Amino acid sequence: MICAERRKHTRNSDEPTPATDTGEDTAIGADADACRDSRPWDGPVQVAALLDDDPAVTPEAVRERIGVSRDAAARALARLRGEHIADLLQTEPTLSPQEAATRLGYPVAARRTALVSAATEVRTRRILPYLRRVTDVLVDAGLAAEQDIRVQRLDGDVLAAAVLLDGSGTPALVWDERYGWRTAVSGRHPIGAETGTPPTGDGIRYLSEDRRPDPAELLAALTDRRRGSRQPRNLHPRSAGRFG
């Protein structure tokens, strides 16, 4: 069995890939808590190496080689294949996603999950420049420190990201593709657990009806506590599994 330990990855903010944080750096596999060994777990790197050696590698083969559960291996393979498809589409935009998967040698049985993951990765890379612009405006206003913005995939491949704040009385802002921007009550876990419903409560304020308001408009809503609402005024359809 391979013991899991959260590993923090630091990337240059201009680096385009990989763009998502799926949370799978932490304890892949239900058996991880039972591990008696305190060695760091390097699973994503190990899975990537197996995929590089054999594009058709199966979850069963990954499980046998590095000791994670089959479900964890399948999730890691889908995520990595999705990133590779997104990389190829970025360099050769005339390819279709299906053509990219074929070019990379991915088996037919693995393509559906790989293409869903790739669609989420492509959407993530498209939203990142906007999230960075918002962060830059908050930094310039003295409300945030320079930071690396990571997009997380919630249940259903919904995208969300957080910007930690300083000195505003609000610990963080959270962007969720369904609800837009809201204030958060925790700087440690600003996004919180996914429940399928919009988070509400004291300290949570939805700042715009738009999914992607202009950064200046967002700043004005953040600093004027009379603006915003306790519930999102619009529910934007998520785009999970779609390119575009």
Q: Could you describe the 3D structure shown?
A:
- The chain is α+β, with helices and mostly antiparallel strands.
- 37% of the residues lie in helices and 9% in strands.
- The protein contains six helices and five strands.
- It has a five-stranded mixed β-sheet, covered by helices on one side.
- Helix 4 crosses helix 5 (108-140).
Could you provide a short overview of the structure?
The chain is α+β, with helices and mostly antiparallel strands and 244 residues long. The chain has helices spanning 43-53, 59-66, 70-91, 97-103, 108-140, 215-223; strands spanning 20-21, 151-153, 159-164, 172-176, 180-184. The protein has a five-stranded mixed β-sheet, with helices on one face.
Radius of gyration: 19 Å
Globally, the shape reads elongated
- Compute the number of strand runs: 5
> If you average the pLDDT, what whole number results?
84
Order of helices and strands: EHHHHHEEEEH
Helix content: 25-40%
Instruction: Kindly report how far apart the N and C termini lie.
Output: 40 Å
